[in-house]
Task: inverse folding
């Protein structure tokens, strides 16, 4: 299944929303999070935080498209540093995107999967 996911991401150079990927693959979102975590761990994809219809998700890119040594300092567990190119009013102490990024560095891929599951549960209840 992870090869199907990778092929799908690879065929979309503009990137694929994770919230769409699990629907396309006809799997549940938890399984999709685990597949994405494996692809991230294997350095086959990169991702950036994005909102779609008010829901936090990720845009996934095939790693060959975005990975280059010059971007490495902006990546942590293959997630882009959120301040790069950010134009929002900045209060770093209260920035959820920055907190998530730091959390992902501290916890690694397993921590991200745990966070995804927490978010999915949270939005399911809302
Ligand atoms: S801390 Fe948050 S608001 Fe400030 S630049 Fe970074 S991402 Fe943007």
Result:
């Amino acid at each position: 299944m992870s090869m199907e996911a990778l092929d799908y991401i690879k065929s979309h150079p503009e990137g694929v929303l994770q919230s769409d990927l699990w629907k396309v693959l006809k799997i549940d979102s938890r399984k999709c999070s685990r597949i994405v975590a494996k692809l991230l761990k294997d350095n086959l994809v990169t991702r950036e935080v994005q909102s779609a219809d008010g829901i936090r998700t990720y845009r996934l890119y095939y790693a060959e498209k975005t990975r280059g040594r010059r971007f490495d300092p902006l990546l942590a567990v293959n997630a882009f540093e959120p301040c790069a190119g950010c134009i929002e009013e900045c209060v770093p102490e209260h920035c959820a995107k920055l907190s998530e990024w730091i959390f992902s560095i501290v916890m690694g891929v397993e921590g991200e999967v745990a966070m995804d599951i927490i978010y999915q549960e949270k939005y399911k209840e809302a």
User: Anything to note?
Assistant: The CA atoms of residues 25 and 75 lie 27 Å apart.
